[in-house]
Design goal:
Blueprint lengths: L8 H20 L17 E5 L8 E4 L4 E5 L5 E5 L11 E3 L2 E3 L6 E3 L5 E3 L8 E2 L1 E4 L2 E4 L4
Antiparallel strand pairs: 1-11, 2-3, 3-4, 4-9, 5-6, 6-7, 7-8, 10-11
């Protein structure tokens, strides 16, 4: 078996120069103000607030729970996780009924969960939602 050649000085230096750049690429996918851990959407039913907080044809972002709730023209509620399907960043901005991800600019329709601007390609995860005693309850088994 032939001996493997050892790495040249140039190869070692090239690798050392590339390592910090690769780290920057990973940092670019992190969420500002968070230490690398992504808070997930609710895993149990969550009381989000008064039902009248979401107007017909509108949407409300519940940042603390990573949920958006919208109401269509007929009054039916829909809820979606606001964890971006591109890189897992929590979406923290709602403009009208458009959700805007702070990490890479993906945009989603809060009424349908569909992608309206890439780089995301998958829609948001729909969550069960209901109104009970004038309160919005979202999450599994809602």
């Amino acid at each position: 078996m032939p001996a493997r050649p050892s790495a040249s000085r140039r190869t070692v230096l090239r690798g050392a120069a590339v390592a910090p750049v690769a780290g920057l690429g990973l940092a670019a996918c992190s969420v500002p103000g968070q230490s690398g851990s992504v808070t997930a959407a609710p895993t149990a039913p969550v009381d989000l607030g008064a039902e009248n907080e979401v107007a017909k044809g509108g949407a409300k972002l519940y940042r603390d729970h990573n949920v958006v709730v919208s109401r269509d023209g007929n009054g039916a509620l829909k809820a979606y996780s606001t964890i971006c399907t591109h890189a897992g960043c929590p979406i923290n901005k709602l403009q009208g009924t458009t959700l805007v991800c702070p990490c890479h600019g993906s945009q989603f329709d809060a009424v349908t969960g569909k992608v309206v601007q890439s780089p995301a390609t998958e829609p948001l995860t729909e969550l069960p939602v209901k109104a009970t005693n004038g309160r919005i309850i979202a999450g599994p088994a809602a």
